[in-house]
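Problem 12. The chain below contains 249 residues. Write out its predicted structure in token notation.
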Amino acid sequence: MNIKPIILLTAALLTGLSGYAQQRNADSVANKPSSTVTAKEDFKDDWAALSHYAIENKQIGAPKPGEKRVVFLGSSIFERWKTTVPEFFEGKPYLNRGISGQISPQLLIRFRQDVIDLKPKAVIILAGSNDIAGNTGHVTNERIMDNIKSMVELAKLHHIKVILCAYLPVYDYPWRKGLEPANKIIALNKLIKAYVVANNLILLDYFTPFADERNGQKADLTVDGVHPNAAGYHIMADVTEKAISKALN
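Solution.
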């Protein structure tokens, strides 16, 4: 029996089967849905935290006819207000745009998105304390004022009334002890008051009702010597409403 043809036939069949299997594997891989790995978005370039209120701003939209919208621009003093005494903002056209830890140049960067684009009638600017708290020798009251002045000029250009705040007193920062900020805040407040007078703005004095004999905060109005407690925010609410009424009337 001549087995040569049988061997050749078997080899051909095995080659064909191997090719078929390889093709099936290739087709299976080609038709299998690719597993996409979603890269985590990197926000290192968002130094001013524009992403913090971006979605909320879009959802709010433009003011309703007759709405006298007011934006609160600042850092943790304002941001904590929303959680400590939330009822102050309920049912009012007040938009709190505080972000904890922010310094005045960050507020300036956020000014277009978190103030101008929201089309308010007025803006309350509370700036300067975090600049002083993070002082490494380069932050001066003059530089803080430069940032405040730029925000004021932008607001005026867009017909937004400006309310500037005299900052709350601080005797010492719990997280940066030894900076002796009390006199620096007093000096900054003097510059703010002079600028308010020279430019026909509204002054919102948060310093006077909080100050104790050391030019720190009264113990019964604060949680840590820097941030108000509920009683402190109720005092802030009273003087704030008066300033808003003066600005809008």
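Discussion. Residues 69-248 form a domain with the Rossmann fold fold (CATH 3.40.50.1110). Students who got a different answer should revisit the alignment rule from Section 12.3.
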